[in-house]
Amino acid sequence: MPEFLSDYFRRFGTHAYSYQTVLIELLLIGAGVYIVLRFLRGTGGAGLAKGIGVLIVASFLIIDVLASQFNWQRVEFLYTKYVSALILAVIIIFQTELRRGIMRLGETTWLKRWASDVEQVVTELVKSARYLSARKIGALIAVQRETALGALAESGTPVDAQITADLLNTIFWPSSALHDMGVVIREGRVAAASCQFPLADREDLPTELGSRHRAALGLSGETDALVIVISEETGTISLADRGRLERALTPEALAKRLLVGLEGARATGKRLPRTASSQT
Question: What is the pTM of this model?
Answer without folding.
Answer: 0.58
